[in-house]
Structure formats: structure tokens, C-alpha cells
What does this fold into?
Amino acid sequence: MGRFILRRSAVMILTALCLTFVVFFLTNLYPNLEKLAKTQGDMRMSEEDVGRWLDRNGYTRSVFIKYGEWLGVVPGFTRQEVNSDGETVTIGRCIEPGQNPAEAATFCGVLQGEWGFSTVFKKDVSEIVGTRLALTGKLMFFVMILMVPAALILGVLAGMREGSRTDRGFSTISILTTATPEYVSGVILIAVFASSAVGLKWFKGTATSAMDDATFNNFFLPVLTIALYGMGYIARMTRASMAEVMTAQYIRTARLKGVSFRNIVLKHALRNALIAPFTVIMLQFPWLLNGVVIVETLFNYKGVGWALVSAAGNNDIELLLGISVVSVFVVLITQLISDIGYVYLNPRISVT
It folds into this structure.
């Protein structure tokens, strides 16, 4: 198992480098850099002014060098210029305003905990990501509490008696929830349960107040919107796994021995039927990071998804890169946990 984890960790590191480089390359395309220069300088800047601003701030160099600086494995760039007082000063990526260049660090990237500075929020990216990630984590926690038990119950009940009315009814519900995207179900839920036009003002149409104090009234709709979409997929996988297990030879043997149907399901079928859904459940975490982009924007809940939309809309390159690091990390870690858990749950799989 230790060798397996080491191999997977090496693959994870390589994958993380490839994915973050792709994001870094796309965010550092010239149109994005041009927009950044005009946003930070003057929207009426000429092409020559844009080129000088980009050169002054180190954006015109090779993308591989810039990626190495951002990662923290290449020394940060430095440049000397003459200020308004006629003095020659040294500026650079690792030099803070007013700091003595001799006291500045040589490397200042993600590996050193320096994630950059947000041009929109005027704060360190690490501080913004930490705050927004905590809010999204709270949302994902309640989504998993609602989604996973409900999906497993629906899937097990449907798979216990394949082809029955219960199976067809629950399968139809699962398909409908999976086929309805969050931006549709969220709007419908707001219109029905939070709009004064319909009259059912049971919940709040926004979740802004839930950032400080989450209650059933202001937090249930966004949680339900995300849970409905993922619940159908998990339920369908659980139903398929349960239906397959119920036709296994050892289940038939237990029936011939006179074991009650309840004991067959709980003691023999359920554990084996939950092996496949475990992997699906773990893979919901990366999907939730994508789902919260829509839901957090729709309900004005200022988590990672909301910050990602704000950063993309305002060309906040450093914040976009910081959120991409978190997304890649969550995806890779959940996949590793999924693989390890699957090996432990399924004794037929051997790892060498």
C-alpha cells in the first residue's frame, strides 16, 4: 500500500504541474495581459504604453520563466528604474513597496506561501482563498449531509426489487434531478419558495446572511439546489450496484436457506453494494467546486465560486491562479482517497 501511495503521489504532482501550467498559460495570454495593464493603468492606454507597462512588470518574458517564478522555483525578477525624484530604485516580484532590495526574498511563489496580490479585492490571494474556501466548505458540508444519505436510501430501495413500481418511481426521480442543471432548479426553487409573486415566502432568495449565521431559512435553498443534482447520479449508481448484488449466487443461497429478506439486504447485500457508490461519492467533491460557481452566484453566497466569477469578470489573474491551485488540490486528493478506500472496501483488489 505504501508503494501504491507513493506512485499515486508522484502522478498527482505531475498532474498538478500540468494542470496549473495550462491555467497559467491561458491566463497569461496577451489579450488578458493587455486588459490587466489597462485596468491597472488607464483604459485609454496606447499599444506602446501597454507594452511598456507589461515590460516594466515582467509580463513580457517567457511563460516558462514566469510560471517558475509563480511556482517559487525560479528567482523573482528584478528591474532598476528611475523614480520621480531622479533616484535609481530596484523593483521586482519579491520586493515589497518601500522594502530594502537586499532584505527581499529570492524566491516568492506558491511553494513559499506567496500566492500573489488580488487586483480586485486589494488583499493577498492566500487570505481571500482561505476565507472563501471556508464558506464554500460549510456549504459543501451541509450538501453532503443531505445528498449522500438521501441518494443511498433511494438507490438501495430501488435496487432491492429491480423492475418494481418502487424501482421505476425512484429511478424516474433520479433521472429528473440529474437532468436538471443547478441554474434551472435554483431559479425554480427561488420562484416557488422565495418569491412574493407565488406567495410561498418560506425561505430567503439569497444566502448572503448565511455567511455569518446559517439558518434553515437562509441556507436550505442553495444546499437543496446542489444536492438535487448530485443526488440523482449517486442514487442511480447505487441502484445499479444493488440490483447486481441481489442477483449474486450467495444471495440466492441465503434465500434458499430461509434467511429473511431484511437480513439478506442488511447483512449480505448492502456492504458489497456500497463499494461502487463510495467512489462516486468521493468524486462529488470536485464536481461540487464546479456546482458552487453557479449556486453561489445565484444566491449571492460569497464563497470560492463567487470569488472565481468576480476574478474572471475583472481579469484578476493572481486570484484565478490561486483558486485553480485549490481546485486541482481538491480533485487530486479526493481521487487518491477514493482509490485507497476502494482497495480497502473490495478485498478482491490487491495492490503491489
